[in-house]
Amino acid sequence: MKIIIDISPLFWKFPSGISFHVNSLFDELIRNDKRKVGFYGVNLGARFFSSIKGRSFKGFWFPSKKFFPNLSYDYIKKIFKADVFIATNHFIPKTEAVTFYYIYDCIKLKYPKEMNCEYDVEYDRIVNLYTRADYILTNSESARKDVIKFFGDSKKIYVCPVGIDEIFYTKTADKVSVEKDISVDLEQPFIYTCGVMQARKRFDWSAWLVNELETVNTLVISGAINDEGRLFLKKIQKQFPSISIVHIGLIRRDIQKRLYEKCKLFVFPSLYEGFGMPIVEAMAAGGGPVLCSDTSSMSEIVISTRQKFLVESKQDFFNKAEHLLSLNNTEVQAIKNKNMQVALKFSTPSVANKLEKIIYDVVGE
């Protein structure tokens, strides 16, 4: 069987959880010689080919050094003899291959105002792809329910969670230092959060929390930021002048892992997530406890009630954070051990195997 994955999310201007998921899934599926995996990318050119220099792909062949957006899928199918196409972006070509469309979340439909988008435009875009796909893939049971709510259950919908990069499952050597790369003193207590600088991530809640706590005075934030996000960040910094709010932008995975390891607490008060990749990354890295909203997929990932708070309650957010920060080393280690067991279920190899099983259940060996 040959599988083609649309990997164009790897080359978005602002990488997201989707980008990292596609990358890890693609790499994992091609590790085995028996798995023949190809690519298809919309609007990929010189940037794509320069980015893959030195990388070894098994069962993988490039048709030319130039990749034209209008390259017909029939041509690609002839080259790869593909049986399956996995659509991860906003495009499904005309093809006879069995097509899976990955709907990561329905956030723009649930919160169009917060996401600054038009509901009708977003709905028409997704419903067109939903109609053309043979099967639907989602990240979580919560996302699956949202898909059914907005588009009905006329399609077979499979749940296949996000795969977490293996780098987060290995402890960083003590001698490794990344402080010079991010200008943050990791030996001082800090709370860490991450994500694209958007209102629905509620970074203002994270800043409020640090402002209320007596034991921590620094909030470190990483993630993509645009002009609108910079205005939002400045507003938060102005609102809480007595604390240190450090935004370090997009960072390497090894730096992110170090932040997970060294923080006193990783918080993720997001209003909605299709999956919540950073939560699992933090669990896998084995740093401080995590604390997230008890809504959407996040509640599926985090089983422990002491590590999630009522989504609309700042007081519960504060109470849970204060409790977690007051735990002794033995209690924190017990939480870390349980978190690691949860995180192992979302490793890239286990997720890739689950996706492969779904494909074989549908298409056959």
Which CATH class of the largest domain?
Answer: Alpha Beta
How would you write the strand order of the largest sheet? 2-1-3-4-5-6
Reading the helices and strands in chain order gives EHEHHEEHHEHEHEHEHEHEHEHEHHH
Low-confidence stretches: 40-73
In percent terms, what proportion of residues is strand? 5-15%
- Please state the second-level CATH architecture of the largest domain: 3-Layer(aba) Sandwich
Distance between the termini: 7 Å
Cα shape: globular
Give your account of this protein's structure:
There is one protein chain. With 365 residues, the protein is α/β, with parallel strands linked by helices. The chain has two domains: 2-163 and 347-363, 3-Layer(aba) Sandwich (Rossmann fold); 167-344, 3-Layer(aba) Sandwich (Rossmann fold), CATH 3.40.50.2000. The chain is built from 15 helices and twelve strands. The strands form two sheets. A six-stranded parallel sheet has the order 2-1-3-4-5-6, sandwiched between helices. Strands 9-8-7-10-11-12 form a six-stranded parallel sheet, sandwiched between helices. Strand 10, helix 11 (277-285) and strand 11 form a beta-alpha-beta unit. The chain is globular, with a radius of gyration of 21 Å. The chain starts with a strand and ends with a helix.
Q: Which SSEs are present, and which pair or pack?
A:
Blueprint: E1 2-6, H1 17-29, E2 36-40, H2 46-51, H3 73-80, E3 84-87, E4 98-103, H4 107-110, H5 119-132, E5 135-138, H6 141-151, E6 156-159, H7 179-182, E7 191-194, H8 203-212, E8 218-222, H9 227-239, E9 244-247, H10 253-262, E10 265-268, H11 277-285, E11 290-293, H12 298-301, E12 308-309, H13 314-325, H14 329-344, H15 348-363
Parallel strand pairs: 1-2, 1-3, 3-4, 4-5, 5-6, 7-8, 7-10, 8-9, 10-11, 11-12
Helix pairs in contact: 1-15, 10-11, 11-14
